[in-house]
Amino acid sequence: MRFGVVVFPGSNCDYDCYYVLSRVMQIDTVWLWHEDRDLRGCDCVVLPGGFSYGDYLRTGAIARFSPIMASIRKFVQEGGFVLGICNGFQILLESGLLPGALLPNRDGHFVCRYTYLKVENTDTPFTRLFSPGEVIRIPIAHHQGNFFMPFAELEELKKNRQIVFRYCGPHGEEDERFNPNGSLENVAGIASSDFRVLGMMPHPERASEAILGSQDGKKLFLSLITWLKENQGGRN
Amino acid sequence: MKYCGKIIVVLKEGVFDPQGVTICNALHTLGYGEVVGVKTGKFFEVMVEVESLELARKRIQEMCDQLLANPVIERYSFEVEVGK
Fold first, then answer.
1. CATH code at B25?
2. How many domains does chain B contain in total?
3. Residue A148 forms beta bridges with which residues?
4. Would you call A86 a catalytic residue per the annotation?
5. Mean pLDDT within A145-153
6. Which of A101, A107, A146 sits opposite B70 (nearest CB)?
């Protein structure tokens, strides 16, 4: 089993992802450069957080045209797993690999703090080790995480259970008070309809060791790793 | 011929514009109570060298659709002028 972490010019959470996968999770992990086309046999590709291409034009808008994104698009069509975190989520949306868009935060601020999330769907390879409705604690750090999509599309997303994480209170309260950025219906992370592409604003790689205050993010990586082990890589 | 496409991209109706709201509030603070709304957006000048005005318009529209605007949240308008 192999994971790959993509490095774009301006990525800054790439090493955190690499460290958690290779050292904490003890998984074979490789760097993938944005100009590469070869995904080197990875079972899962991680698009890390940061400011790819300086966030020029719109967050993620330029990264989408990197050579590696053409390979990732093909990889997704073949059933490969992709996890986009923060700027990685923004890139997935700009690429059309996930639906919707991210607007600047409601209050106009960069928000950097721990948030509580409710795991809304545990029937996905990324979340299978969480209990249904489990409240977890994972930090966010972004200026543009205000999820938006037209109403009809949102209904479709809900029907397909593609909303995987929602911001909530410490006891799972899903109200506006606990919405850090103005996201539609407190959406913090969504998946593709086959649940092989996950995009989320919170940073699970920053919550994968006790010394950092939370290990809830580790469970996400562990979920996917156990799924891949049980399904021998799981590619179609 | 050289042409210049002048493109304006703004958020669609109903898409919240936090920058616009912040600027609107600042204008109220400055005493411009008559301000009832502010919209922010982006302006681009794209210079092209093609055979005709028609082709310049077509190519610039394609650029807007593919890159300059995100159709989920934004709409665009543009004019094409003969460039220097």
1. 3.30.1280.10
2. 1
3. A101
4. yes
5. 95
6. A101
